[in-house]
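[INFO] parsing input record for Adenylate kinase isoenzyme 6 homolog
[DEBUG] input buffer:
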Amino acid sequence: MDASKRAKPNVLITGTPGTGKSTTSEMVAELVEYKYINVGELIKTHKLHDGYNDEFDTYWLNIDKVVDHLEDIVADGGCIVDYHSCDFFPERWFDLIIVLRADTEVLYDRLVARKYNPKKINENMECEIMQVVLDEALDSYDHDIVKELQSNSVSHMEDNVNYIQDWISRFNPDHTP
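[DEBUG] output buffer:
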């Protein structure tokens, strides 16, 4: 569905693993009473993958399966979508892209606390340092809808949730990016 026809916006919250996507997404979805979609969990639950990558302790994403599965779900709007990548989602799906960022010291501690293997920690640290997810978002979507937010602390998270909630409350379905 064309974004201009939706009464409620769709928001993608993305960022390197450990930046607070899931917590922020769940909080926003609950506050605004939107559907929360954790794409990583969806991939596992609905087998939207091509097997498991033991080296990085993750699933091989099947983009076509994910997009096909989500197409009707996001069509009417009112979704908060949480995933660590964004360049494969159709541009028409989202009205706001939030890229969460974290300082490397904070991110490292979070990834260690999750018991990620060293290779996975290094890969994610490098992604954050090189701002891979932010660049992906800026390359894939209109710059006007991409917003970078810091996510180092509970205070940042609260500010981010408030920012997104406020943005949703001001959403105009007749907008143009």
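[INFO] The first strand starts at residue 10 and ends at 15.
[INFO] shutting down worker
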